[in-house]
Specification:
184 residues, alpha/beta, 5 helices, 9 strands, globular
Length: 184
């Protein structure tokens, strides 16, 4: 298993020692850009981590959200892209169909990138109606690392948020992760 973290504006700094990959919140909805995005990307790239970016999905305006995410995200070849599908601060959520449209549209716009779905176990089990996770499922379930309580295959497991979101990836080596990401 490989080790990584995911960060947002709530983590102004993070330690890259022992990390193989870092996911960074890029955007949310159609108006928010992570104000720490550039510094967080630089830290991950300087540490030679595999870099991923995620968009926090809101209901509605899916094409506009995809355009916004891609216009604000400083992705490079070999970076991973993901959609964060969960309840918004306003108590709403995008539908399973909207989640699917977002992933498919990002894949259409960025065919050279792997596109993943991030969600928690409850969303996967109770709100997902398609089992569609693009190129891979990134599942949050706070149990032992690498042992999420789901039947579906997964690529990344977020197993804790203490003191920050920690993840493991189901790859044998960083080279295997890089090769998979580059295959788009």
């Amino acid at each position: 298993m490989l080790h990584g973290v995911d960060v947002s504006a709530y983590q102004p700094s993070y330690d890259t020692d022992g990390l193989d990959f870092v996911f960074i919140k890029s955007t949310e909805g159609r108006t928010y850009v992570n104000p720490r995005l550039d510094a967080q990307v630089k830290r991950a790239r300087d540490a030679e981590c595999v870099v991923g970016f995620y968009h926090f999905l809101w209901p509605g305006d899916i094409k506009d959200q995809v355009a916004y995410f891609l216009s604000k995200t400083p992705e490079k070849e070999g970076d991973l892209l993901a959609v964060d599908w969960e309840q918004t601060g306003g108590g709403t959520r995008a539908s399973s169909a909207e989640k699917d449209r977002f992933i498919r549209e990002v894949k259409r716009e960025r065919p050279g990138h792997r596109v993943l779905l991030y969600c928690n176990r409850a969303f996967w089990r109770t709100h997902d109606t398609s089992d569609y996770a693009g190129d891979g499922l990134w599942i949050a379930d706070y149990v032992s690392a690498g042992k999420p309580r789901i039947e579906a295959s997964w690529r990344i497991h977020q197993y804790t948020d203490d003191p920050l979101d920690k993840n493991v990836a189901d790859f044998d080596s960083v080279r295997a992760l890089r090769d998979w990401a580059a295959a788009g």
